[in-house]
Amino acid sequence: MNMIKIAEITFLYAFILLPVFVILFWRMQAKKKKSLQSIGDKPLINRLIPLYSNGRVVLKFVLLLFAFTFIIIALLRVQIGSRIEKANRKGADIIIALDVSNSMLAEDIQPNRLSRSKQAISKLIDKFDADRIGIVIFAGRAYVQLPLTNDYAAAKMFLETISTNDVNEQGTALGSAISLAVESFDKTKNKLAKENNKAIIIITDGENHEDDAIEQAKLAQEQGIMVNTIGMGLPDGAPIPMYVNGIQSGYKKDKEGNTIVTKLDETMLQKVAATGMGAYVRASNSNAGLQTVFDEINKLDKKEYESKTFSDYEDRFQYFVAIALIFLIIELLIFSRKSKTFNNFNLFGKK
User: Fold this and answer.
1) Which domains does the chain have, with CATH numbers?
2) Cβ contacts of residue 229 below 8 Å, gap of 6+?
3) What pLDDT, in 10s, does the model give residues 61-77?
4) Pairwise CA distance, residues 63 & 81, whole Å
5) Cα 326 to Cα 41: distance, rounded to the nearest angstrom
6) pLDDT digits (tens, 9 = 90+) for 209-218
7) Confidence band for 196, pLDDT divided at 50, 70 and 90
């Protein structure tokens, strides 16, 4: 199996120009048709410009459009990796459990708790070398967003897509998140090997926890898994914004019509971290506490594992350049006007 990679992904934006060109061409054709109609009826126009072929004009435009498309693909520098390289690496296994409940939209941490959490995770990934990372998201329930991997690019891609819409059931199921994170680690004979090379990082405001997170942290620690917590929010709290079609429509209110203020529950998160033999850090607008957590992870033992990656990527852009040139040559060979020599061979419409 070959692996396809795009080296210059920013050129994808050039595809936006394709519908723009189509719209402009359509408007030009419509304007030209209107101008010709103002001269007279169709038989008269055909006598005045007998060699003009609208079909040829359209065909030439389509050929140019195809040529432009393949030029964009060439600029993307599509590469093929046909050889899989196996390598033994040493690293820790880290599962990040991210709270995606609606309270994470509060803006006491700028731009909001969830966005700042995603930024923090992205920076944390940049610090990893040979460690494997997985992502669990949770609100009222917990789900695996990304299994353990050393593909940091994929991890960032999955991270970017996370939103509060990913889990419909509201709440903060810390215990379920820890339990699912534990299950997500590699298993040996269906039992977790007690090794000091696994860690869980929980990023949440800790509010409205619904299950026994402390008990789950204890079970994780008994299996050699360190549990760290990052409190995302401020003790004074902030209201929860409500959005309709991406536009803020106000703030969440209780049954009495009072604005709900969501506050960071530090006490719970401190207890979870202490039980899990990890660190608790409160994030702020200036510091997400990453270094403290990263220092704790660096204390873990490094386990050797086998990784498989594609290597020997080769550029294939030249094929797309060649196809683009073929379309351009064909376009040049087709004239907008009919040839007098072949006027009797009317392939593009009635005379």
Assistant:
1) 3-80+314-333 (no CATH), 93-301 (3.40.50.410)
2) 201, 202, 203, 204, 206, 269, 270, 272, 273, 276, 278, 279, 280, 281
3) 999 999 999 999 989 88
4) 31
5) 38
6) 666 899 999 9
7) confident
